[in-house]
């Protein structure tokens, strides 16, 4: 609308508006026949037996066929591939007869030569005034882009599935390699110790990473055997390297001087010198001890030292159990010089020592996995096994570890050393 007293702008004149409307109207003056023939989809009408009565130019172009060769000469199924024809006869046509219409069915058209064209087909039956079916009207949509998308999606799904299978295979190979490496850091078997029965167990919390727990029993001289159990800091290859260094250092140091404090002192010096200044300090906790059986009394003298490790449990044949206190022992490898705490005991027939790493005591329990299993629960569990030989005690504790399920975050090493009861036979089991 113009303001009062002003003339309309040139482009707002009535003549220009009328000319624009006329030009726009001319764009819409296509005939119905033109719209049918050149629609962006294919149209055809067939008699009830499938004979083609009418087909538009778009569909003919897709087929690469002439109208005279199709209309009245071919049926709709003649335009389909063998698979499409079979599907039409067994599914498409029966459903169309029952429902009167069907839509979005994926078929393939035969093109001139050996080409195939994926399409989506919708059909509806036209009925006469009395309800009798007269003909079938069919709309055909080009599905080449959709087929390409589906094929690409399928390829990506197949690639993802192959990647998943490859990842699972790689993980299985990694776990196998790690298991072999983990086993190489543990003794194959425990040696026979005169007058003593031994058993051990290693529980892996995560099969796809190396743990740092270790243990061993070995001969020192004609009278004594050494034993140790511990846990290095960290996980993975670095922990494995530290475990290997620790095990061999303990064995070598014991052959030079079997005094437990001297052995741990040597290990402390080796670790501190090896990792000082590396920017990645490494340390471990460890218990080292000696076993000296007395053939005449059938008893075994135990002398041990601890460097920051959980206390050893002593279980007596009379049913009592308690910790061998080793307070104040420092972590091994942290300081250039460290103090280690000693303890001594004597094992009589039916008595047993249990060494363990903190994976079992720090396991999460309860429905909410917020409580720790703890030292006292372990002590009570072991006390219930009083009088049992080391293999039976280790088997019971292995069941406890398995029962933690996903509450067990850390590996656990167990080592049991016991004097057989008079009616038992000495043996070593791992």
Written description of the protein model:
The protein is of the alpha+beta class and 430 residues long. 35% of the residues lie in helices and 27% in strands. The protein has ten helices and 18 strands. The chain has helices spanning 14-27, 32-37, 57-63, 67-70, 82-99, 144-184, 237-256, 260-275, 375-383, 390-403; strands at residues 42-47, 52-55, 101-110, 116-127, 133-142, 197-203, 213-219, 225-232, 284-294, 299-307, 312-315, 321-324, 341-347, 352-356, 364-365, 371-372, 412-418, 428-429. Strands 12-11-14-17-6-18 form a six-stranded mixed sheet, with helices on one face. A five-stranded antiparallel sheet has the order 2-1-5-4-3, with helices on both faces. Strands 7-8-9-10-13 form a five-stranded antiparallel sheet. Strand 15 and strand 16 form a beta hairpin. Helix 7 packs across helix 8. The model is unreliable at 1-8 (pLDDT under 50).
Which key features would you list for this structure?
430 residues; five-stranded antiparallel β-sheet; alpha+beta
Order of helices and strands: HHEEHHHEEEHEEEHHEEEEEEEEHHEE
- Multimer state: single chain
CA-CA gap between termini: 101 Å
Beta content: 25-35%
Task: Supply the number of helical segments.
Answer: 10
> Which stretches of 5+ consecutive residues score pLDDT under 50?
1-8
Mean pLDDT across residues:
87
Largest sheet at a glance?
A: 6 strands, mixed
Radius of gyration from the CA trace? 43 Å
The secondary structure category is alpha+beta
Task: Give the number of DSSP strands.
Answer: 18
**Major sheet: arrangement of strands:** 12-11-14-17-6-18
């Amino acid at each position: 609308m113009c303001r009062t007293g002003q003339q309309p702008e040139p482009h707002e004149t009535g003549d220009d508006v009328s000319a624009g409307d006329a030009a726009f109207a001319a764009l819409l003056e296509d005939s119905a026949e033109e719209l049918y023939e050149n629609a962006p989809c294919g149209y055809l009408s067939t008699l009830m037996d499938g004979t083609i009565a009418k087909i538009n130019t778009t569909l003919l172009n897709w087929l690469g066929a002439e109208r005279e060769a199709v209309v009245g000469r071919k049926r709709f199924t003649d335009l389909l591939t063998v698979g499409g024809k079979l599907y039409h006869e067994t599914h498409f046509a029966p459903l169309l007869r029952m429902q009167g219409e069907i839509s979005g069915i994926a078929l393939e058209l035969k093109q001139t030569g050996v080409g195939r064209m994926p399409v989506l087909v919708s059909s509806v039956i036209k009925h006469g005034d009395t309800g009798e079916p007269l003909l079938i009207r069919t709309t055909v949509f080009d599905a080449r882009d959709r087929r390409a998308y589906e094929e690409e999606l399928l390829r990506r799904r197949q690639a993802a599935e192959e990647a998943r299978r490859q990842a699972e295979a790689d993980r299985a190979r990694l776990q196998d390699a790690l298991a072999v490496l983990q086993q190489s850091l543990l003794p194959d078997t425990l040696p026979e110790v005169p007058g003593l029965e031994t058993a051990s167990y290693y529980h892996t919390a995560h099969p796809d990473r190396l743990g740092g727990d270790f243990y061993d029993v070995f001969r020192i001289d004609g009278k004594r055997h050494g034993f140790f159990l511990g846990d290095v800091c960290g996980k993975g290859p670095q922990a494995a390297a530290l475990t290997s260094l620790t095990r061999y250092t303990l064995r070598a140091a014991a052959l030079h001087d079997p005094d437990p404090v001297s052995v741990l002192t040597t290990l402390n010096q080796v670790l501190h010198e090896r990792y000082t200044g590396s920017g990645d300090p490494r340390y471990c906790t460890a218990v080292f001890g000696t076993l000296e059986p007395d053939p005449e009394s059938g008893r075994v003298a135990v002398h041990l030292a601890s460097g920051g490790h959980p206390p050893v449990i002593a279980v007596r044949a009379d049913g009592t159990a308690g910790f061998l206190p080793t307070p104040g022992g420092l972590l091994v490898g942290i300081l250039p010089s460290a103090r280690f705490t000693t303890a001594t005991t004597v094992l009589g027939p039916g008595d047993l020592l249990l060494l363990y790493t903190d994976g079992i005591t720090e396991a999460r329990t309860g429905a909410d996995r917020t409580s720790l299993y703890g030292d006292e629960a372990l002590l009570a569990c072991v006390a219930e096994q009083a009088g049992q030989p080391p293999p039976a005690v280790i088997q019971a504790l292995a069941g406890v570890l398995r029962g933690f399920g996903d509450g067990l975050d850390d590996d656990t090493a167990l080592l049991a050393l016991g004097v057989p009861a008079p009616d038992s036979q000495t043996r070593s089991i791992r």
